[in-house]
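[step 3/7] fold_predict: job queued, chain A
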Amino acid sequence: MDSKRLTDISYSVLDLATIAEGRTPADTFRNSLEIARLAEQLGYKRYWFAEHHNMINVASSATSVLIGFIAAGTSSIRVGSGGIMLPNHAPLIVAEQFGTLASLYPDRIDLGLGRAPGSDQLTAKEIRGEDFYAQHHFPQDVEKLQLFFSEDNSTGSVRAIPGEGLDIPIWILGSSTDSARLAAAMGLPYAFASHFAPTQFLSAIDLYRRNFRPSAHLKEPYVMACVNVVAADTDDEAMRLFTSLQQFFIGVISGKRQLLQPPVDSMDGIWNIYEEEAVNQMLGYAFIGGTKKLKKDLQDFVNKTGVDEVMATSHIFSHEARMRSFQLFAEVFK
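[step 4/7] structure written:
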């Protein structure tokens, strides 16, 4: 694997539309637009939202609506889903929604697809109704989406209008080796959720590269890693801001979610030893610090993984501090 410099790497944003304590979803959406505009100015390649449901602190449930909102308020950055959870949707509906987005914002829309429900089982049942009990066929549904987007379907009895004939890049998202096999077999770009599922990351991207079959969409394997980033003017300040993310992940592992909390001087008394261990394991790929530390840590990461693109997700309580973090993160790649 050829070693890459950070200047060779594309950098992007994953936004979960996290709601901070004392704020509303409307505040979150306004902040997202401001960050997307900043990201566009700073050379970020993409701005993605992730579909989640029934989470008090995450407002990105209507993912395609948010993609349209951000695309309308920007002019060049790619906007997309990281991802749309395909078990929740009929492929035709996804094709029509993203066909509409791609018609409104040509050459700017990405469609990342996940095979999980993005919610708990009770919520998934509410979304899918009786279909909840049916076996879900993720690979076949991805193929069906590709068919709806193709010009070859112009004689089909069911067509995606708009959507048909549009070049909308499809990405396979994953947090395990299962998705790596599918992305490789279909010759599609692969985005790994190393920001919360670091365990199988290295084995998954290795499996993807070894089994990759070139396709009309992609000639060589392309790996994007999503990682947690908290950048600040000093390492100490970044570590303090990081405590909001640590508190957020206590909610992930315990199921007791709360709005994004302000940073604290110490996590002592907030988590127990088991929560601390579990959170630290999930946050194995978190890049915390000033630009000097980030540059070293990210270069080590790229040397080890050979990724083509890094997508940053940043749960930072203060909107101004989050803006600053994305500004500093971009500087690392210059």
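[step 5/7] annotate
The mean pLDDT is 94.
DSSP finds eleven helices and nine strands in the chain.
exit 0
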